[in-house]
Structure formats: C-alpha cells, structure tokens
Amino acid sequence: MRLYPLAFFFILLTGCAENPAIVVTRDPPPSIQINTHKVERGETLVSIAWRYDLRWEELAAVNSLCPPFLINPGQEIKLTSGIKNYRICDDNIHVVQPGDTLYSISKLYDVEVKSIINLNGLENPFLISPGDRLSITLAQSQSNLSKTVTNAEDKKAKNTNILSKERSTYPSNWTWKWPLDGKIVEDFDLKKSKKGIRVKNISSSQIKPAAPGNVVYAGSGLRGYGNLVIIKHSDNMLSAYANNKEIIVEVGQSVSQNDAISRLDKNQIIYFEIRRDGSPVDPLRYLK
C-alpha cells in the first residue's frame, strides 16, 4: 500500500501524543553566598563594609583586626557574622565564651596553651568559665595585618586605611540638613537596588555634611562611587556622598554642618546615602 506523506505525518504525530516526552522538574540552584572578600588596592575596612551593607566594627571583630585596623591588598576578609569568639583588642583580653577551652582559645590566637596558662597564673586543672577575662599574647602570625609598606603609592593608600584608636565622640542636638541645593533625579528604592538618592546640583559649589560627625572614608577605592566621602554621625548612623569632583577632607577629620567636604560642578549629579546599623534607609525620612 502506498503511504502518502500526509498520512505518514499524521501517524507520527499521533504516536508522539500517545507517548509524550517526560518533563523533568528541577529545583533552582541555591544562590551563591559571598563569605569572603579579597582586598584590592585602595580599599579600607569601611569601604568593604559599605559594599556589603555591613558595619566596619563587625568586620573588624570577625577578622580579629585591632587598631589601627590596617588591611593589605590580597588579604581575605571574612564577611560572615555571628562569630562569638573574636579578639577583644583592649589590653589583648579574651572574654571566655560558653564552649571555650584553653585549646580552642590557643588556636584562635595562634599561641601555645602554656603561654596562656603562665600569663594568667592558672593552676592545675586549669579550669576556665564563661565570663573569665584572659590576657592573650598577640601571635606573630598576625603581624601581616600591619605590614610596613615600602613604596609611596602604598604609603598614600595606608593613610586612608587607619581608623582612630580613640573612641569618637559625636555632637548631639542637631537635625539633618540637605548637603547641597539640588533636584532629586532618582529616588530611593531598595526593590530596585537603589540604596540612596541622586541629586542634580543647581547652584552649590561645595558639598556640606548632612549632619556633623567624623570622616571615616575619603577616596575612590569603592567601585561605582567615584570620589566618595563617608561620615559617621553616631554609633549607628553614617552618610555617604559619592561622585564628587574633588574631595577636600581627610580620614579622621571632624566636620560640622558648615564645613565643606568636597567640590562639585554646576549640574553635576551627586549620589547620597544614609545608613542605620549598616543598612540603607530612605534619606527623605531624615532630610529637612
């Protein structure tokens, strides 16, 4: 019997309908969580914390960094939080946590158990309890956190890496003010990854702090922010001023709301953020 092409196609289609292909469903792959960051030239603890929406104090604690909080290109910084056993820098004291042993503490600081015993006058059976304060000899292996830089470029970068060892004091009884005379061209919207606002300059020649505080970052080491200034206003509030034409303040400098921190051109668009406890908040909730 002669099989016409059309009839053959119909038979083939019917066969496929009777034996449909098996559809395999797969769960989406888990999202990749970034747990470490490799330091690049020009970065500081503050700029890294800003990049990942963290507090620099938390990064310092997690990574056992002590004043002057120096970091070096190529160094890996842990980003994970919730670590309880970390170095307390003042007087090299470790506060014993539940589950701590002399062995675990010795490994944490890369020192010998015997050194901790002798330093603290512990007697056999060398018992320790949560809340005990143990003096710790700083490990030689930690010396890479404050390496001596050798060339001029690294010396310049080192200067922006230093945070004051003294606990900063912050003025009170102030209100937030606009840092420049401008027009908002982009609103805050976390759902669209817009962590701040963009303001087009109208008549200002300089940026002034939205609130008094201390400069904790001044540089261009954070990608996408250009010339960036970050000011700390209290233990939990910071503000950032990005894409400046020129920065005119230095790290560690105290500024009032009348002090200029940067220069800018007419019609220049400035990016502005406010963060509370490391998280971005809508600046319009604060600016008056």
Order of helices and strands: HEHHEEHHEHEEEEEEEEEEE
Number of domains: 2
Assign the CATH topology of the largest domain: Membrane-bound Lytic Murein Transglycosylase D, Chain A
β-strand number: 15
Percent of residues in beta strands? 15-25%
Q: Could you please describe the fold and organization of this structure?
A:
The protein has 288 residues and is of the alpha+beta class. The protein has two domains: 36-159, Roll (Membrane-bound Lytic Murein Transglycosylase D, Chain A); 182-285, Glucose Permease (Domain IIA), CATH 2.70.70. The protein has helices at 5-18, 45-51, 56-62, 102-109, 113-120, 152-159; strands at residues 36-38, 76-78, 93-95, 133-135, 182-186, 197-201, 206-207, 213-219, 227-232, 237-244, 246-247, 254-255, 262-263, 269-276, 279-281. The strands form four sheets. Strands 5, 6, 8, 9, 10, 12, 14 and 15 form an eight-stranded antiparallel β-sheet that branches. Strand 9 (227-232) and strand 10 form a beta hairpin. Mean pLDDT is 76; it is low at 20-31 and 138-167.
